[in-house]
Amino acid sequence: MTELTPDIGAYVSIDKEALESIFRGLKQEGYTLIGPTLGEGAIVYDEIDGMDDLPIGWTDRQEAATYRLHRRDDQAVFGYVVGPHSWKRFLFPPVQKLMTIRKQNGSFSVEPHVEEPPRYAFIGVRGCELQAIHIQDRVFLGGPYQDPDYKARRQLAFVLAVNCTEPGATCFCASMDTGPKAGPGFDLGLTELDDVFVIEVGSEMGRRIMSGVRWRPAGAFELQTMRERLTQAEKSMGRHMDISDLPALLYQNLEHPRWDQVAERCLSCANCTMVCPTCFCSDVQEVSDLLGETNERVRVWDSCFSLQFSHVHGGNIRPHVRSRYRQWMTHKLASWVDQFGTLGCVGCGRCITWCPVGIDITEEITAIRGEV
């Protein structure tokens, strides 16, 4: 074992308990650890202090409209898939104050809401989730108008990615080319084996954090085992989606009868958009105090499934569930490409798991493709 600094791109191995040294190094650098932990009957992302807060020995079993926690027969640290939370809630908060307007001496003052951006270290970011962050980077930072709060949070974020070796029943990241191995953009990329973690150093900050950790160069057997498990994970996805020519498929079938069939089931509850790691719809609300002296402008998450979201002067352009579901899916898998140069789906399967009636986006695409 050594405490020298590994090179960027190097693969090293650490004992599992040495993960605590990584956490300690991150906290010494001023990061707040955000990672997986048990809460609300699920594995959720929240502030953690160390390894004791991780869901060690737990896993999640998922199917359409089904999520259950179960004990594993081992002590795997990252032996789960993804829960209802995504990392966007820390980069693009569900509720965010923008400014305060106050009445003053017959006039008013405007106070922009300015706060010190948090310095987050995201622990356990899956490949699909890392791609979702990259997609939101395009949304919030890629155009001529950038979101300053998102930019500040994103620039300070540290990403410890975790490669998936046990995909869930609703996962289809292999179809979207977003996993199971995390792509570029992480600071440290971790693969859990039986007795060790194999870590790929992805950035200068990741290299710096590893300088305080006892590590050794990853052995040939460990690297081969890692590759075999990632290959097996890619072959054992719970779902599959054929993404060939998706935009054209959907644009050419806007009046397909499948939209009516799915609308008969859809509750328009917006669960799918709330758990989706790439959806970014929001509303700006004015919140006044009882005396009308102070008014706050607040941005909140919204959804294209909401009836009010598509209400404009003169009426509602999407008054029916059919049109709102079609808008969501055609945006995610077609017009998103026109806007941002990438699909808006990363194959995490959350929209399938957390839909109360079990609507499956992969089944909807298969049905439209099969009937054309």
Quick synopsis:
This protein folds into two domains: about 200 residues, no CATH class; about 110 residues.
What is the count of structural domains? 2
State the helicity in percent bands.
Answer: 25-40%
In percent, how much strand structure appears in the residues? 15-25%
User: What's the mean pLDDT score?
Assistant: 96
| Shape descriptor | globular
Question: Helix tally?
Answer: 13
What is the gyration radius calculated from CA atoms? 22 Å
SSE blueprint:
Layout: E1 11-15, H1 19-28, E2 32-39, E3 42-47, E4 58-63, E5 66-71, H2 88-91, E6 95-104, E7 107-112, E8 120-125, H3 127-141, H4 148-156, E9 158-162, H5 173-176, E10 188-192, E11 196-201, H6 204-210, E12 216-217, H7 220-235, H8 246-251, H9 258-263, H10 271-275, E13 282-288, E14 294-301, E15 311-312, E16 315-316, H11 321-340, H12 350-353, H13 361-371
Parallel strand pairs: 2-8, 8-9, 9-10
Antiparallel strand pairs: 1-11, 1-12, 2-3, 4-5, 6-7, 6-14, 10-11, 13-14, 15-16
Can you describe this structure?
It is a single chain. The protein has 2 domains: 11-93 and 115-235, no CATH class; 246-281 and 302-371. The protein is built from 13 helices and 16 strands. The chain is globular. A hairpin with a 2-residue loop joins β4 and β5. The protein has an 8-stranded mixed β-sheet, sandwiched between helices. The protein starts with 10 loop residues before the first strand and ends with a helix. The longest helix has 20 residues, at 321-340. It is α+β, with helices and mostly antiparallel strands and 372 residues long.
